[in-house]
UniProtKB/TrEMBL annotation:
Residues 1-85 are annotated as: Disordered. Residues 1-11, 21-50 have a biased composition (Polar residues). It comes from the Bacteria. This is Uncharacterized protein.
Amino acid sequence: MNVSGMNLNNPPVSPGISQAKVESSTKTQAEAGSELSQGAVTSQGDTRVSISKEGRDALSSDSGGKLHAQAQAQSAESSEKPKKKIDELIEAVKEKLEKLKEELKQLGNDKSEAGEKKRKALQSEISVLTAQLMDLTNQKMEQEKKEQAGAA
């Protein structure tokens, strides 16, 4: 078994963790249950891993600090990502609206039946996109209110 940081041929994973003892034995579930409260980990097979108190303390302080920093960074990113997504969606809808309005202007002189159908289709699509734009704008305002309430 080669676990990074536990192999004696490799240097430890972090400065606080030097060695871990890996033992293999066969125990009953009752014996294994009592050892779990003491820090031993068991599985369905006969593998048992024990980590000393010093090792657990070093691992928790080393890994815990990194995990805490990662969680804070992810939290900050997640609050920025939805805002960016909404802004991107708003811009995409605005661009599409502009294109449709331009198409509608170009069809202004077409008095044929096909031109009339195309105008109606464009107008309904413009209406739908306008409603989407209003909804996205409302979502953005709600998000900004939440951010301001959270900052206060």
